[in-house]
């Protein structure tokens, strides 16, 4: 196979990896900064995808509204989870996992009841449903658009977390809650804000993935599984680690299907096992870094 034949799968892998990074960022921030193991994360992503698919009407304005509504739905879900888990912080992650897993089951059932069992996709403007030539190959414009938006979202999230006072406050809350309380800030409010932000990221991730992958009954389970793999491989609570792991997962998934189709279903699990076996340190939760 010629080298340029790998270009399109590689671009697909980077685009897919960035989308997974946005999805996994909400999960790792919720755990690392909010202290919550949120197994309803995939359901929030699916909810954002369904809302985006139902809202879009083939115009630029409706597409922007669809992304906004999906983000708001995810943020509202994150707020509800913050309220539901507020009293479980000192009781360990098992109680959080059981509660959020129950919420995930209920939410998935409600979404299926509301939107049915079919895979849905948003209606896109005509300009996004064309192709352009990339290195001699035709490539969908909508995927390039999603790639660009995902890059902006990832870069913005990094800047907010590392270059703003709000981001410093979040990291300080993880490191020393007593100190943050001593300067007059309620750590519980910071925890709630983090979960709302994580939910907003989940909703936005659902809106961005829906044009490419669609959204259906299995979206919540699939995205949660991939997000967990990314968070574990990248390090619990590490945003840069989640980004690197997400890009690796995206490339393994897309290039693997192209180059090794017969063993592609096993490549991701094999790669995760190699990473975990190679890592000599444990995987404690830590502040987003």
Characterization of this structure:
- The protein has 289 residues and is an all-alpha fold.
- The protein is built from eleven helices and two strands.
- A two-stranded antiparallel sheet has the order 1-2.
- Helix 2 crosses helix 8 and helix 9 crosses helix 10.
- It is globular and about 60 Å long.
- It starts with 6 loop residues before the first helix and ends in an 11-residue tail after the last helix.
- About 2% of the residues have low confidence.
Q: Any key phrases for this structure?
A:
single chain; two-stranded antiparallel sheet; 72% helix; 289 residues; globular
Q: Biggest sheet, open or closed, and with what strands and sense?
A: 2 strands, antiparallel
Q: What characteristic shape results from the CA principal axes?
A: globular
Q: Report low-confidence residues grouped into runs of 5 or more.
A: 281-286
Mean pLDDT: 83
Give the topology string: H per helix, E per strand: HHHHEEHHHHHHH
The level of helicity is over 70%
Major β-sheet strand ordering: 1-2
Strand residues, percent: under 5%
Q: Could you give the count of β-strands?
A: 2
Please give the count of helices. Answer: 11
Radius of gyration: 19 Å
Distance between the termini: 39 Å
Structural class: mainly alpha
